[in-house]
Write a structure and sequence with these properties.
360 residues, rod-shaped, six-stranded antiparallel β-sheet, mainly beta, five-stranded antiparallel β-sheet, 8% helix, Jelly Rolls, 2 helices
Length: 360
């Protein structure tokens, strides 16, 4: 019984071995090993889903399918009953970029297609194309320009000088004496820097009103000069003598400004010591009483007298509160030699020649 079982096992093993040997030979099929290519009996059938979406089916032998720019090649070969996956060494361009400033024409890839923006001709623009290039031209009208000139409409001098080509040339403005130019965004302002100009009055010895009694006013004499005779007021060295002038303050004068009085005199007997003069103003308008007290006394001295017979100068400056004048006033100006002043040390007469009164 045991011998019969062993015989059956040997028979079954022999049959299985025979089958294992016959099937590979008959069907010419090898079981794939690690790293081997998988083969199919009839033909290669494959369905691929690419990265960009959609289905790609390879049913035709030796068919090649390219993905969305990945450079992947799929080959179905029924002769070898094999599906091959390979990467194209050259690859496929899948993107684009704009490397300069401004608006770009690269829109980007859609699957395996690079898309670019079209150029649209705007107003007065014309676009033409040939095999290799696009040409953008201006289609509008180009003006040839206008011959332009300028002229001065009035006045004694011309600001416009000439035209050179398309350039109009104008003369510049230069500030002369006592003039200042100020350039603004839209205009040029011309101002005078002279605070006196023609705004002055001259007080001569002949125009003075001598005072009474005679002992309180200087003697007015005509001096016999070598080259000409002249009139002078002889102010004494020991008695404070005074005279008065009268005139009208102009209607355009600014009474809020200072009034200056420049006094010129001679010291015929020498240059030792000093001479002092004092002045006072009074302004009277219509309907005001005339003979009233004078204004503030202002004194000036010259302690470095020039050579006998030379002109000396003293300036008296009155502020608006000290002179009290307003435009249009009748003006009274009194001038006295201030012999009581400690700086009036000249022992001889001071001969008054004239004065200049200035205001703004």
């Amino acid at each position: 019984m045991a011998s019969s079982s062993l015989t059956n096992v040997l028979i079954i093993g022999t049959v299985i071995f025979a089958i294992a040997m016959i099937i590979p030979i008959f069907f010419d099929v090898d079981f794939p090993q690690r790293g081997d290519t998988i083969t199919f009996v009839d033909k290669a059938i494959c369905t691929i889903i690419p990265n960009g979406g959609g289905n790609y089916t390879c049913l035709t032998p030796d068919d090649t399918v390219f993905f969305n720019g990945t450079g992947l090649t799929i080959t179905a070969n029924d002769t070898e009953r094999t599906v091959f996956f390979a990467v194209d060494a050259n690859g496929t361009i899948t993107t684009c970029s704009n490397i300069g400033p401004g608006f770009g024409i690269c829109s980007g890839p859609v699957f395996s297609t690079l898309e670019f923006k079209s150029l649209v001709a705007g107003t007065d623009i014309n676009i033409t194309s040939d095999a290799n290039s696009l040409t953008i031209d201006f289609a509008g009208t180009i003006s040839a320009g206008e011959n332009t000139t300028a002229t001065s409409l009035g006045g004694d001098t011309d600001v416009f000088e000439s035209q050179v080509g398309d350039q109009l040339r104008f003369r510049g403005l230069t500030a002369g004496q006592n003039i200042i130019l100020t350039q603004n965004a839209n205009d040029i302002v011309i101002n005078s820097t002279d605070t006196s100009g023609v705004k002055f009055a001259i007080l001569t010895a002949g125009g003075a009103t001598l005072q009474t009694p005679a002992s309180s006013t200087p003697q007015r004499d005509t001096q016999a000069g070598t080259n000409f005779d002249y009139l002078a007021l002889e102010y004494d060295a020991t008695t404070s003598e005074e005279v008065v002038w009268q005139y009208q303050f102009p209607t355009d004068a600014d009474g809020t400004q200072n009034v200056n009085v420049l006094i010129r005199f001679l010291t015929p007997t020498g240059s030792a010591g000093g001479v002092c003069f004092s002045g006072q103003f009074l302004g009277r308008a219509n309907t005001e009483p005339y003979d009233v007290a004078m204004g503030t006394t202002i004194t000036g001295c010259d302690t470095t007298l020039d050579t006998a017979g030379d002109i000396n100068e003293i300036t008296l400056t009155f502020t608006t509160g000290q002179h009290g004048l307003t435009a249009g006033d009748t003006v009274v100006f009194k001038l006295a030699r201030d012999t009581a002043n400690g700086s009036d040390t000249h022992a001889g007469d001071a001969w008054y020649i004239d004065s200049r009164v200035t205001w703004s």
